[in-house]
Design goal:
Number of domains: 2
Radius of gyration: 24 Å
Number of helices: 7
Largest sheet: 4 strands, antiparallel
């Protein structure tokens, strides 16, 4: 870890992004990667932990932990004196005002006292469970991991699982190829390589699979011919 506060925040968030699942949302030629937990909520929790931890407790540190069913972000010191379970999230007290002011000036904090609400709003927008808060000796934010998100997921080992719609399974790469052919029946292997971001050999392999599934066919010669889309189960997605 870096020795500076902002570096530690960035590294902690990068750690979570490396190890949490990603779902793919494909609406056109571009593929949108969606983290299983909203990045805004995770960042708020990390910034909150760094900003409000008790720096006088020796041997204690901010912890960012990933489990199969949850993510926990913990800081020593609990909540500030004067905050109770009843007024938690409604009033704002700062343990480390200089750190809070610095993070606010460099835009790591958007608005003082809104972190808890922003975490809740971010999870609501992402349609995942609200975080749970433990207010005792160690302040802990727990995010439940949703292992049933819709879409194609990439796990920590980078394996892909296709989403089933209709009667066929199709991978994200095959969907990009199919969409590209739908928009340009004369698209070339080289162009598909650039669009999908995979090697030409992999493009050809996916084209072969799409043909075997009866979704596309080649009309004419390899040079001068064109593609014909026979079935695209994702075309109305």
């Amino acid at each position: 870890m870096n020795n500076n506060i902002t570096g530690n925040i960035d590294e902690a968030l990068a750690f979570l992004k490396r190890h949490l699942n990603i779902s793919y949302k494909i609406e056109s030629l571009r593929r949108e990667n969606i983290l299983e937990l909203p990045e805004d909520a995770l960042r708020e929790a990390i910034v909150n932990a760094v900003c409000h931890r008790n720096y006088f407790e020796k041997g204690a540190r901010v912890m960012v932990e990933i489990f199969d069913d949850r993510v926990e972000i913990t800081n020593p010191g609990g909540v500030c004196k004067g905050i109770t379970s009843k007024n938690f999230g409604k009033i704002s007290l700062t343990r480390n005002s200089l750190i809070a002011s610095m993070l606010y000036r460099i835009d790591y904090i958007e608005q003082m006292g809104t972190g808890i609400l922003r975490m809740k709003n971010a999870t609501e927008i992402a349609n995942v469970a609200e975080p749970k808060f433990d207010l005792h000796d160690f302040f802990k934010v727990t995010f439940a991991r949703n292992q049933t998100n819709h879409g194609d997921k990439v796990g920590e080992k980078g394996t892909e699982k296709g989403t089933e719609k209709g009667t066929e399974k199709i991978t994200p790469n095959q969907q990009l190829i199919l969409n590209s052919i739908t928009q340009n029946t004369h698209v070339t292997i080289e162009e598909l390589t650039g669009i999908v971001g995979i090697a030409a050999s992999k493009v050809k392999e996916n084209l072969s699979k799409l043909k075997s599934k009866g979704m596309i066919e080649r009309v004419g010669a390899a040079k001068g011919g064109y593609w014909r889309v026979k079935a695209n189960p994702f075309s109305n997605a």
